[in-house]
Amino acid sequence: MIRLENVAKTFGRKPALHGLSLDVAAGEIFGLLGHNGAGKSTTFGVILGQVYPDRGEAFINDVSVQRDRSTALARTGAIFETPGFYDYLSGWKNLVIFTSYTARVPRREIEEAVEIVGLTARIGDPVRTYSHGMRQRLALAQAILPSPEVILLDEPTEGLDPEGIHEMRNLIRSLNKTRGMTVLLSSHLLSEVEQLCDRIAIMNQGHLVFHGRWTDLQPKGESYRLEVDDWTRASATCEARGVRVLGEGQIAITDGADVSDLVAAFVTAGIKVRGLARDRPSLESLYLETMAGTKHDKHGAEKQPNA
Questions:
Q1: Number of alpha carbons in the 13 Å side-chain half-sphere of residue 70
Q2: pLDDT tens for residues 199-226?
Q3: Which residues contact 37 (CB under 8 A, 6 or more apart)?
Q4: How many CA atoms lie within 13 A of 202 on its CB side?
Q5: Inter-residue contact 241 to 235 (CB < 8 Å)
Q6: Which of 73, 90, 94, 203 is deepest in the core (most CB within 10 A)?
Q7: Which of 223, 204, 207 is nearest to 289 (CA)?
């Protein structure tokens, strides 16, 4: 649904994107990750036609944004950078004004969008009386009018309290499930991305570091946390069976091995197993490991760490 092909952009003498290519499939929630200055906002700008690339193109539903922006963005909504509203007008009046710039939207459709984001009770109040969370809801209502197929969300939970983050996550998930919207999501809250996205792209200094399922970042094999009555004997048993010891109470089982065979060996050796749990790395830990292992030379060319 969204595709970037060899997109490059430089501002002055500072490269922002180095030949970026990635794809977002129809109907998925895709996460775009990276530190401040990694190129995420420039990528959003290129997709929305607000930044013209020096090289390459962005496509939405196979239509080039650079060659036919109006058609490409006809069914695209976005929350990009800080949402701006007329504070002295009501939320409803803001939606009426902004939708009039793009397409004529029936009243019932605006009412439905307001209901979806949970602003029905306050939509008639001036925006200056809205909390930050309510402004984000209003921005989301604007983004889903009139019924886009694709929605780009740049830090949609920024500044929200835990309750607001939870509500925004559920709204995003609902739009994807009930309306089939394709969502491209940028966020620094990696726990939220982990809950919403299967596939991600990680950027560093304008380079694409990773593109795919975030679970593929996990090291080969499975790691476990182990609690036994005699760790010295247990670690010796692990090493004798070719099980890698990562540290006290931590082991790694290679592909093809069965952890139950190791437990049976402990029992045979008279070692009491009090606890055994699979250690599942979070997206945050995998992201930090990936970023720490990525190097760039003096010309900005990406280097991957040695395996």
A1: 3
A2: 999 999 999 999 999 988 876 667 888 9
A3: 205
A4: 21
A5: no
A6: 203
A7: 204
Average pLDDT, the chain: 89
pTM for the whole thing?
Answer: 0.80
Residue range 229-244, pLDDT digits in tens? 999 999 999 988 888 8
Residues contacting 249, CB < 8 A, separation 6+: 225, 226, 227, 231
Backbone angles phi, psi at 212, to 5 degrees: 155, -160
Return the structure tokens found at 95.
């939606």
Q: Which of 56, 25, 38, 15 is nearest to 209 (CA)?
A: 38
* Cα dihedral sign, 79-61-47-207: positive
Q: Are strands 207-213 and 273-279 parallel, antiparallel or unpaired?
A: unpaired
**In this structure, are residues 17 and 42 in contact, taking their beta carbons and an 8 Å threshold?**
yes
Name the token pair of 28. 């998925």
Maximum alpha-carbon separation in the chain: 76
End-to-end CA gap in the chain:
34
**pLDDT score, position 297:** 42
Strand, coil or helix: 266: helix
